[in-house]
Amino acid sequence: MTQALKPETPAQLLDAIAWANSDRKPLELVGTGTKRGLGRPMQTAFTLDLSAFTGISLHEPAELVLSAGAATPMAEVEAALEAAGQELAFEPPDFSALLRVPGMGTLGGVLAANLSGPRRIKQGAARDHFLGFEAVSGRGQAFKSGGRVVKNVTGYDLCKLMAGSWGTLGAMHGVTVKVLPRGAKTRTVLLFDVDAAAGIAALTDGLNSPCEVSGAAWLPASVAARSGVDMVAREGAPVAALRVEGFGPSVEARCGMLRALLKDRGATEELHSHRSHAFWREVRDVAPFAGADDDRIVWRISVPPTEAARVIAATAGIKGAEAYCDWGGGLIWLAVDAPRTGADGLVRDAVATTGSGWAQLFRGGDALRAAIPVFQPEPAPVAALTRRIKDGFDPNRVLNPGRMNEGV
Amino acid sequence: MEMPAPDKGVIARRAAIAEELRAIVPGEGVIVDEDELRPYESDGLTAYRTLPLIVCLPETVEQVAAVMRYCKAHGIKIVPRGAGTSLSGGSLPLADGIILGLGKFNRILEVDYDNRCARVQPGVTNLAITTAVQADGFYYAPDPSSQIACSIGGNVAENSGGVHCLKYGLTTNNLLGIELVTMDGEILRIGGKHLDSAGYDLLGLLTGSEGLLGVVTEVTVRLLPKPSSARALLVGFPTSEAAGDCVAGIIADGIIPGGMEMMDRPAIKAAEAFVQAGYPLDVEALLIVELDGPEAEVDHLIERVRAIAEEKGAVSVRVSESEEERARFWAGRKAAFPAIGRISPDYYCMDGTIPRGQLPLVLRRMRELSEHHGLGVANVFHAGDGNLHPLIMYDANKPGELERAEEFGGDILKLCVEVGGVLTGEHGVGVEKRDLMGTMFNADDLAQQQRVKCAFDPDGLLNPGKVFPILHRCAELGRMHIHRGQLPFPDLPRF
Ligand SMILES: Cc1cc2nc3c(=O)[nH]c(=O)nc-3n(C[C@H](O)[C@H](O)[C@H](O)COP(=O)(O)OP(=O)(O)OC[C@H]3O[C@@H](n4cnc5c(N)ncnc54)[C@H](O)[C@@H]3O)c2cc1C
After folding, report:
1. Is residue A1 pLDDT above 80, yes or no?
2. Are residues A28 and A151 in the same domain?
3. Are the C-beta atoms of B426 and B143 separated by less than 8 Å?
């Protein structure tokens, strides 16, 4: 039976971790638990429930900053930002349908997992918007880094280290993020009937133009056909999609520029506000693989955009394989019907041939996530460095031990 | 400024060390002659000078790795150096340390437009990257004012910014990968042409680590398509409050300008006298707001910003109608440092960030401090992101003025922290702000940062004396203070 510790104050959090450290009791850090299915499964006797650390403590729209308890629900953060005409520009995804969990989780969870949506290519990842935090290390010591201003190079940038560390370095209780104005208008240009290579070439054209593209995705015909956006689904063809956002006159002008740019590649269409929103939500949230009866293994893969078509081709032979791209080809979502092995050998070989990239087993059962590396295995010297960094924060391995790699 | 006590044993072995380094870096790459060492004795923070033990200028990554291994084996300190433009003394030499200069790593290795990136060696200047790709419609976004001189390796180490970083980010937001040589002499590739990291974000950690964690031997930067047009407004205000309100109003309207710079009256006066940019001289604060993007957007936003400026009490508004005019608006701002250099024998450039709403208070207190210390100050300000550059005017030839300038600077930075800001927005801590770290961080915060250092360089051989006020030994930092052995707060909810 797992027992939960639920500190209510930073001082209690410190006590809890200091105790776990001295008694060598590993803890599983939990906000609202929506990301428990991500990373390697852990067997800890105790969970450290951080859900008491909620609430927005500072939101100054004109200074572009927001501070909140790390376990503040994303829904609350997004509502507050929306009321001020702002957003988290990295477009945090909502994986609740994909992972069959009740919600989007917490702000701290999104940062600790460094999860970003389609706008990542233009505005950067979660880590690029992470300005400061307060936390307790595995040593049972309070520490902080960063600040509440958008420009700061004082000391090591530990925010970057905490982002994507999956709770293995510190238990954050307060975080500060950069918040930006949301675009007044959004439109999407669609180019139909292009295979992966031609589709990604079209995305490259868009991204390399001065049109300030904020979303660039390619869907194969089978995925497009399942879209809830009528104009995408009804063509029965693969589609490349480029999004522009911003002020009305600018969006209209850039949309026109993109269509002119792509005209030799085929017929184009435009999605306007509501449809454009709905489409990118599907891309962001991996809706194509989130159907109630879809229980395939899902991989999240990043490679150089020009390598995406090759990776998709190299994995196409896996049973049940289906893949689509975001980030102009820089992100591939791949579903495969391989519950026992995840076809990890084939997937990681395909990534290895690109010379630059990683594959993360994103959705898979506990047994599979325990059996194969979930995150891309690191070269030995990097893995050694990772362990030494962990030693500095959590020498006794009490914070989410093994969540990312064995022994870390 | 106290630096770690030089190791006399190392200094005594100087000739032998040089010989051994020559076996690794043949030819002219090992410098011991005093005249030739002289150019390396300081960086952009010229108040501090030390002759290095030896300067070593390797040409290959294997040589860098071999030098690091050699220094590690013999306990010799290393100070990495790019172009030596650091304003915080980041590349200040050590009397018992080797300057490892990356100047010979000056090639652009690959430009890959389809993946929107370039692979360059660390000694390539910031501007050279943009120069290499601009004919094809691309650029590298971070643009420190020192961009003709500073190296991209130095930019990575300092996480440098520029006037465009509110919209386009600092160095850290514009990198995809690096090659790094550790103090162990291991060559690591971190990142590449893909996005994000599979494990800990070592790229993010290394960026801004001020040469304390490893030597960067290759950088993959993101390239962006050049905006199709840019126009600027030059707006004068009767008070800095009004100018600050205007900045807030622009952002509240959902506009993130490509650049948004503020100057105060002394800075305006000096700049105008120097380059005759046509700045109004009867205002307390001047804003340059640059909008970039497609023409339709720029034309639309220019009018919105003009309306906001007028509403906030602007007394003069000019909009650039040509590229020449836009360049003229910027000329004064870009020449602000040398302009101050013309009216004062020496000046000391500070770099704090504040929550922008605190600007009027900070400027008022700064005027008081200026009187208190008896030294003039002019302010240029990256207004969008709250990054202040007070330029303190002094005369190093007058006894005591340098010390007063430094005290004044320290007071300004403490003020920045006091109002919720930070010690440095883009120039780094280096030796300059090292002893002020305690105003922002407590001992535990600093110990945790130093444990990161221990993961990379447990012997503290890389750039010691920078960033951290007190150097703890890694063994001491690693020790655990064992807490009580019982479950805490038994009456807490548990389920
Ligand atoms: C007139 C002037 C204007 C400036 N304007 C700006 C500005 O607008 N914005 C801004 O951010 N900065 C500015 N700076 C500061 C400075 O130019 C930057 O900090 C720059 O990035 C330093 O680059 P460098 O090559 O000169 O590095 P150096 O001064 O040689 O070194 C800086 C630090 O980086 C380390 N380092 C250098 N190369 C490497 C490497 N390859 N691997 C590991 N560590 C390395 C050094 O050890 C040192 O700690 C300005 C400086 C001057 C003189």
Report:
1. no
2. yes
3. no
Task: Tell me how many domains chain B contains.
Answer: 3
Q: Quick one: pLDDT at residue B471? A: 79
Secondary structure (3-state) at B114: helix
- Tell whether B485 lies on the interface with A, counting CB pairs under 8 A: yes
Find the domain containing A132 and state its range: 1-182
Q: Residue A329: which CATH number?
A: 3.30.70
Return the residue in B186, B193, B260 with the most chain A beta carbons within 10 A, the one to mutate for interface testing. Answer: B193
Q: Do B205 and A253 touch (CB under 8 A)?
A: no
Residue B425 alpha carbon, nearest atom of ligand 1: 11
Instruction: Assess whether B216 and B265 both reside in one domain.
Output: no
The answer on A106 and A217 residing in a single domain is no
Give residues (CB < 6 A) around ligand 1: B 43-44, 79-87, 90-91, 102, 122, 144-146, 150-151, 153-155, 157-158, 160-162, 210-211, 215-216, 337, 426-427, 463
Q: Does residue B184 form part of some domain?
A: yes
Ligand 1 test: best mutation among B68, B100, B152, B158, most atoms within 8 Å of CB? B158
For residue B470, what pLDDT is reported? 83
Same domain, A318 and A178: no
Q: Look at residue B130 in the predicted model and tell me its pLDDT.
A: 98
Q: How many domains does chain A have?
A: 3
Instruction: Look at residue B455 and tell me if it is in a domain.
Output: no
Choose from A122, A203, A385 for mutation: most chain B CBs within 10 A: A385
The length of chain A, given as a count of residues: 408
Taking an 8 Å cut-off on Cβ atoms, the answer to whether A60 and B424 are in contact is no
Residue B178 domain boundaries? 108-225
Do B244 and B193 have their domain in common?
no
- The beta-carbon neighbor of A249 closest among B200, B208, B300 is B300
Cα separation, B434 vs B413, in Å, equals 12
Is residue A283 pLDDT above 50, yes or no? yes
Q: Does this complex have an ipTM over 0.90?
A: yes
- Tell me if B179 is assigned to some domain: yes
Range 187-216 of B in CB contact (< 8 A) with A: 188, 190-205, 207-209
Q: Which of B114, B115, B422 sits opposite A154 (nearest CB)?
A: B422
**CA-CA distance, A41 to A328, in Å (whole number)?**
31
The pTM score is: 0.97
Cβ-in-10-Å burial (0-12, 13-18, 19+) of A68 comes to buried
Average pLDDT over residues B225-246: 96
Beta-strand (E) ranges in B182-306?
187-191, 215-222, 224-225, 229-237, 259-264, 285-293
A31: tokens are 């906000």
Q: How much of chain A, in percent, has pLDDT values that exceed 90?
A: 98
Strand partners, A86: A181
Say yes or no to pLDDT of B24 above 90: yes
Q: Is there a single domain that holds both residue A133 and residue A223?
A: no
pLDDT at B488: 58
Give me the pLDDT at residue B480, please: 73
**Considering B369, B402, B427, which residue would you say is the last residue of a domain?**
B427
Inter-axis angle of helices B295-311 and B240-252, nearest 10 = 140
Chain A residues touching B493 at Cβ < 8 A: 6
Q: Mean pLDDT throughout A95-111?
A: 97
Instruction: Give the residue-averaged pLDDT of A243-270.
Output: 96
Amino acid at site A394: D
Question: What's the gap in Å between B126 CA and the centre of ligand 1?
Answer: 10
| Domain C-terminal end among A285, A309, A334 | A285
Residue that terminates a domain, selected from B383, B399, B427: B427
Nearest to B385 among A148, A151, A393 (CB): A151
Same-domain pairing of A123 and A243 = no
Mean pLDDT of chain B: 94
pLDDT (tens digit per residue) in B166-191: 999 999 999 999 999 999 999 999 99
CATH of residue B163:
3.30.465.10
Between CA A159 and CA A266, with CA A244 as vertex, the angle to 5 degrees is 130
Instruction: State pLDDT tens for residues B484-494.
Output: 555 555 555 44
Separation CA B184–CA B162 (nearest Å): 33
Q: Which of A145-154, A316-325, B204-213, B473-482 has the lowest mean pLDDT?
A: B473-482
The pLDDT value recorded for residue B495 is: 40
CA distance A250 to chain B (A): 4
Position A197: which residue type? A
Mutual angle of helices B359-373 and B240-252, in 10-degree steps = 150
